[in-house]
Amino acid sequence: MHGMCVPSHDFCLTFPFGGMVALFGVAGYVMRRSMPSLISGVVIGGALIATGAASLRAWSTGAASFPWTASSAAVTGVLAYVMWKKFLVSHAMFPSGILAISSAIMLAFYAKNLFIDGGNPPKKPAKESAD
């Protein structure tokens, strides 16, 4: 498993990003008792983690992970748009500003992965040990 997760694989950043989104939703609930924050954060974060897991599974089997990376990008694009609009109204860095900025960065990463890199690099065959 050493060397498997490098920044050129979408799932390597999708998992922590999805976790951050979910944690921000929980933080919104804890700080302000905002049920919409909790639900949207957990649902969107969970969707990102699920698409990351599907991308990892596809990559692990040698199948195309493009649809899963594109799905992650779509969810992230919607999140970036909604959080940017919210930030423009509230001017609050937490959570809308941070989520808008991090979503934009992730969207750029997904675009690079999909359109410049051509998707996740293929899985390298396991090296056979010399007996």
From TrEMBL:
Superkingdom of this protein's organism: Eukaryota
InterPro entries: TMEM14, TMEM14_sf
Record's GO cellular component terms: chloroplast inner membrane
Family annotation (Pfam families): Tmemb_14
Keywords: Membrane, Transmembrane, Transmembrane helix
Family: Belongs to the TMEM14 family.
Protein name as catalogued: Transmembrane proteins 14C-domain-containing protein
